[in-house]
UniProtKB/TrEMBL annotation:
Pfam families: Ion_trans
InterPro entries according to UniProt: Ion_trans_dom (IPR005821), VGCC_Ca_Na (IPR043203), Volt_channel_dom_sf (IPR027359)
GO biological processes: membrane depolarization during action potential; neuronal action potential
Protein name: Ion transport domain-containing protein
Membrane topology qualifier: Multi-pass membrane protein
One CC-aspect GO term: voltage-gated sodium channel complex
PANTHER family reported for this sequence: SODIUM CHANNEL PROTEIN TYPE 10 SUBUNIT ALPHA, VOLTAGE-GATED CATION CHANNEL CALCIUM AND SODIUM
Gene3D superfamilies: 1.10.287.70, Voltage-gated potassium channels. Chain C (1.20.120.350)
Organism: Gopherus agassizii (Agassiz's desert tortoise)
């Protein structure tokens, strides 16, 4: 049983099985989202933990529900099921299948809307002090107007990140690496820029065959960069190399300026 008291017309409890409205020491931290008292160690539920304030008994009961890890696990399972319904959609699906998937999607929208409402009822205005809760709220709103923005349903999948500690760690490491990734990308661009100019000067008039066509060629800077990007992915680079290895008419016109197509080491060095 919880040891209950009263404060300003509300109740708080800090006994066994209660996580709601634990007494808050004067001057203690009141930052939303910080786990305090029995809120510590609750896994995904710690994202919901506001500072411990007196709450009505009904709100305390709802808060105890939404702060339990089982509640978050249930929501994660529903999100995975929603992913399955998105994966089974096809372009030529029958009208009956479209109607069934639409009803299932409306069911998920109702469930996630109810989840959002329950959390707002339990956490009150502290619901909007957590970034993940704001994200959930935006996804729910966009899902309600899903006929206009159908792709908003994909946002629900991102909620799985909150429940996966390993993914959050990887994303944090990626964000911390962004400055270094920018420098690496800039260096790669400079290398590709040099090779693009070199390719325009030597392979602009190579005969269009195999991998060389109206889009993939060395006649313009943009097309040259596109060819080099294809080479960096190791996809179809041999199709670009074969026309370059051919010399003389009719593969290239040696009388044209910059028509020397006898540089086979160009691709190899870039690779």
């Amino acid at each position: 049983t919880a040891a209950n008291g009263s404060f300003g017309g509300g109740t708080w409890g800090h006994g066994k099985g209660s996580t709601c409205g634990a007494p808050h020491p004067p001057g203690a931290s009141m930052l939303p989202g910080a786990a305090q008292g029995r809120g510590q160690g609750r896994g995904a539920g710690s994202f919901l933990w506001p500072w411990c304030a007196p709450l009505p008994p009904r709100s305390c009961f709802i808060f105890d529900i939404v702060s339990k890890q089982a509640f978050d696990v249930s929501i994660m399972i529903l999100i995975c099921l929603n992913m399955v319904t998105m994966m089974v959609e096809t372009d030529d699906q029958s009208l009956e299948k479209v109607n069934i998937l639409h009803k299932i999607n409306m069911l998920f929208v109702a469930i996630f809307t109810a989840e959002c409402g329950i959390k707002m009822l339990a956490l009150r205005h502290y619901y909007f002090t957590n970034g993940w809760n704001i994200f959930d709220f935006v996804v729910v709103i966009l899902s309600i107007v899903g006929r206009v923005i159908r792709l908003a349903r994909i946002g629900r999948v991102l909620r799985l990140i909150r429940g996966a500690k390993g993914i959050r760690t990887l994303l944090f490491a990626l964000m911390m690496s962004l400055p270094a990734l920018f420098n690496i990308g800039l260096l790669l661009f400079l290398v590709m820029f040099i090779y693009a100019i070199f390719g325009m000067a030597n392979f602009a008039y190579v005969k269009k065959e195999h991998g060389i066509d109206d889009m993939f060629n060395f006649q313009t800077f943009a097309n040259s960069m596109l060819c080099l990007f294809q080479i960096t992915t190791s996809a179809g680079w041999d199709g670009l190399l074969n026309p370059i290895l051919n010399t003389g008419p009719p593969y290239c016109d040696p009388n044209l300026k910059n028509a020397n197509a006898t540089r086979p080491c160009y691709n190899e060095i870039f690779l």
